[in-house]
């Protein structure tokens, strides 16, 4: 384990030195998107300055350089996730597109009337709506696995929900609202006993814990680059080779074809079959840089630091009157989601902003969770590797002021 030097880590993120209304920025909206280290920004700059060209089709020097860099990025992601093959890594726009790709192609090929798909009650809309639409179209049923008052799911209930018509289970690794780290390995083991494939929404896990798709044995794993200190507009779908080969293409056009005539088209091999059109080349390179950056810090260090932040914030939250935390799972990611009795989440967020503190307010794209707790919205402070205990102190001081002002 290398040394964890917080000041050094922070020095990689110039934005953290910004002043907001003349106050130092306290960035606690990391679950929405993380900030980008210099190495990622420099990679984008360098690509457009000296390497820019289109990939895979050019025989000239620049195009070959860009192609090599893009395919090297795929290799870096493959090693990062410990996939078996590079062609199991599909570049997409992000988690949402990765899930839509699977929901759309899987349902086209394998979902029939009377079948069902299981999701959990804590899914982001991105891992709910695509399945709901697929089920509606095929007259299949969307089954929902509930969570308890701590935000934990019950594996026995999952076994009860599964039946002969269950075609797929789609579940989040980490809840963006409750922070729950779901027991995905166990879920996959249960599902595979019945030969049911599992898709994991890894949007909130990928920056915080080591993900090993071979060890998990998941069939699909999705994440977004921008939540992993990488650029927006780039993400990954990992799929097991056998599944990706069984699914039809998602989009049609250049790159994904093998031979085209006016009458007939044959498709390219993996991974190109799922990468129609010009890829987000610089994004893939930037994402690979982000992965290198995260690996240079090390997940052991990241998890240790973020757990300290979570425990510190959770303890401090107990001193605030009327503060209710949603999600108290034993295994929880570094975020606190809360309401303050009698106050509106929007007012809290608006006033915290005046202190330079960026938090998220609203439903966090999980409206069913708001319905379950019967609230219109919540406030969420989510931490990353560069956040500090001093920032948490300032957050609670400011929150106390905000509560006084609003009361
Ligand atoms: N799933 C979860 C759990 C998320 O937190 C998010 C982003 N908030 C998404 C999916 C969607 O990610 P993106 O918008 O990057 O596609």
Task: Describe what this molecule looks like in 3D.
With 407 residues, the protein is an alpha/beta fold. It folds into two domains: 134 residues, Aspartate Aminotransferase, domain 1 (Alpha-Beta Complex); 255 residues, Type I PLP-dependent aspartate aminotransferase-like (Major domain) (Aspartate Aminotransferase, domain 2). The protein is built from 14 helices and 17 strands. Strand 5, helix 5 and strand 6 form a beta-alpha-beta unit. The radius of gyration is 22 Å and the shape is globular. It binds 4'-deoxy-4'-aminopyridoxal-5'-phosphate (PMP). The site of 4'-deoxy-4'-aminopyridoxal-5'-phosphate (PMP) has 13 residues, from helix 4.
Which fold name corresponds to the CATH topology of the largest domain? Aspartate Aminotransferase, domain 2
Helix segment count? 14
Total number of strands: 17
Give the overall pLDDT as a whole number. Answer: 97
Radius of gyration equals: 22 Å
Instruction: Name the CATH class of the largest domain.
Output: Alpha Beta
What is the CATH homology-level superfamily of the largest domain? Answer: Type I PLP-dependent aspartate aminotransferase-like (Major domain)
Distance between the termini: 47 Å
* Main beta-sheet annotation: 7 strands, mixed
Bulk shape: globular
What fraction strand? 15-25%
Low-confidence runs: none
**CATH structural architecture of the largest domain:** 3-Layer(aba) Sandwich
- Neighbour order of strands in the largest sheet: 4-10-9-8-7-5-6
- Output the structural class: alpha/beta
- Proportion of residues in helical segments: 40-55%
Unique bound compounds? 4'-deoxy-4'-aminopyridoxal-5'-phosphate
The total tally of domains equals 2
């Amino acid at each position: 384990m290398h040394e964890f030097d917080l000041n050094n880590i922070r020095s990689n993120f110039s934005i953290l030195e910004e002043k907001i209304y003349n106050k130092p920025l306290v960035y606690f909206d990391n679950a929405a998107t993380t900030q980008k280290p210099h190495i990622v920004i420099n990679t984008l700059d360098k690509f457009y300055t000296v390497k820019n060209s289109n990939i895979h089709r050019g025989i000239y020097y620049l195009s070959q350089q860009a192609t090599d860099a893009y395919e090297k990025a795929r290799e870096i992601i493959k090693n990062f996730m410990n996939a078996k093959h590079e062609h199991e890594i599909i570049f997409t726009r992000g988690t949402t597109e990765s899930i839509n790709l699977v929901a759309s192609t899987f349902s086209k090929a394998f979902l029939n009337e009377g079948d069902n798909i299981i999701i959990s009650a804590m899914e982001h809309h991105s891992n709910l709506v695509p399945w709901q639409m697929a089920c509606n179209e095929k007259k299949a049923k969307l089954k929902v696995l509930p969570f308890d008052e701590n935000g934990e799911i019950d594996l026995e209930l999952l076994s009860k929900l599964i039946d002969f018509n269950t075609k797929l289970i789609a579940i989040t690794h980490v809840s963006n609202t409750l922070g729950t780290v779901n027991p995905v390995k166990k879920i996959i083991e249960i599902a595979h006993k019945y030969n049911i494939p599992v898709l994991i929404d890894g949007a909130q896990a990928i920056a915080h814990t080591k993900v090993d798709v071979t060890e998990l044995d998941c069939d699909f794993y999705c994440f977004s680059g921008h939540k992993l200190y990488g650029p927006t507009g780039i993400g990954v779908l990992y799929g097991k080779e056998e599944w990706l080969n069984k699914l039809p293409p998602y989009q049609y056009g250049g790159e994904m074809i093998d031979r085209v005539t006016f009458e007939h088209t044959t498709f390219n091999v993996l991974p190109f079959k799922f990468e129609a059109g010009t890829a987000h080349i610089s994004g893939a390179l930037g994402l690979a840089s982000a992965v290198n950056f995260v690996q240079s810090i090390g997940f052991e260090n990241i998890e240790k630091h973020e757990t300290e932040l979570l425990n510190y914030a959770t303890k401090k939250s107990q001193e605030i009157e009327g503060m209710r935390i949603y999600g108290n799972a034993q295994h929880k990611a570094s975020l606190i989601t809360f309401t303050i009795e009698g106050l509106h989440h929007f007012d809290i967020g608006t006033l915290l902003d005046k202190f330079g503190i960026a938090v998220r307010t609203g439903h966090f794209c999980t409206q069913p969770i708001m319905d379950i707790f019967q609230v219109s919205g919540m406030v969420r402070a989510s931490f990353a590797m560069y956040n500090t205990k001093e920032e948490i102190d300032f957050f609670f001081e400011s929150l106390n002021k905000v509560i006084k002002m609003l009361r």
